[in-house]
């Protein structure tokens, strides 16, 4: 009979080895299967058990909030409010900028506060560039209107001080102009009386285009003096305006003899202007303004005659040019121009200088033709 072990190539143990195995003490099978643990590991495990209480649980990590929860909306709300506030500030800023620019544009187009109602309604009638240059002058009489006119009435100087319901005469003249002197010497006495009685308003436009006829810019110096009187001593403006055309004072255009500042000051004092003011004429306070007034005035279409020409003297009655030549001829000559003027205004000679006696044409009527 064959042996299985031998067949597997193992040697069969002898009887002595079998007996030794049987004689060895028997152990529990579970203890044999249990791995050995060192004393050090056992102590560490025991220490860990003592350090951690049996009922203590590890702390948990707080879960992140889900989008849309109230807590997260509370953090977003301030940010939204800030954005809205910034948008409102930007809108307000743009609105203010637009308003200011619109206001500036309107201010640039708005006429001076001294402009008469008629001037406001029709605006400047002369060259636009010359008008703009006139407005750009910084030192000018505050009583002047935007076209350089100086309006005199019983109430004072300035368009706002016009007497209502009476005619307005607008006069253009150059202090060197010989015909201005001739016309002035005839009508100025009547003008002064009518102004004082509140029967008319007179707007003076003093020009200087005849500076070239003098060696010392006589016209500009006189115009500056007249402007200073209008600003500082308006009550004496009509008298001083008449005095510069006095026959014994006005220089000859064709053979000019120099007129000193001192002599001009003396002429003003003779018309009632205070010496303290007259002595300052030489400072030329308004000379730049005078230049621009003249440059603009000669371009005014409303001041040109029927032929489309501008000349001095020119007199407008209620905004229309009055034909001086025809008026003088109707009364027998220039020396009777004062009578022609009264007829044009509709005022009797005996009523001149009497308050309450008003010209019939009023503030809107056209000049009456002399018969």
Describe the structure.
The chain has 371 residues and is an alpha+beta fold. The protein has a domain of 213 residues: Glutaredoxin, CATH 3.40.30.10. The chain is built from 15 helices and 6 strands. A 6-stranded mixed sheet has the order 2-1-4-3-5-6, sandwiched between helices. Strand 3, helix 8 and strand 4 form a beta-alpha-beta unit. It starts with a helix and ends in a 26-residue tail after the last helix. The relative contact order is 0.10.
Summarize the structure.
With 371 residues, the protein is an alpha+beta fold. The chain has 15 helices and six strands. The longest helix is centred in the N-terminal third of the chain and has 40 residues, at 70-109.
CATH arch. level architecture of the domain at 139-351: 3-Layer(aba) Sandwich
Report the β-strand fraction as a percent range: 5-15%
Count up the helices.
15
Which overall shape is indicated by the principal axes computed on the Cα atoms? globular
Point out poorly predicted stretches. 1-74, 99-122
- What does the largest sheet look like? 6 strands, mixed
Question: Order of strands in the sheet with the most strands?
Answer: 2-1-4-3-5-6
Query: What average pLDDT do the residues reach?
Result: 79
> At the fourth CATH level, what is the homologous superfamily of the domain at 139-351?
Glutaredoxin
Structural classification: alpha+beta
Count the strands? 6
Look up the CATH topology of the domain at 139-351: Glutaredoxin
* Element-level helix/strand string: HHHHHHHEEEHEHHHHHEEHH
What top-tier CATH class of the domain at 139-351 fits best?
Answer: Alpha Beta
> What is the radius of gyration?
55 Å
Percentage of residues in helical conformation: 40-55%
How far is the N terminus from the C terminus? 183 Å
Transmembrane segments: 79-98
Region (Disordered): 1-73, 102-125
Keywords: Membrane, Transmembrane, Transmembrane helix
Biased composition (Polar residues): 102-122
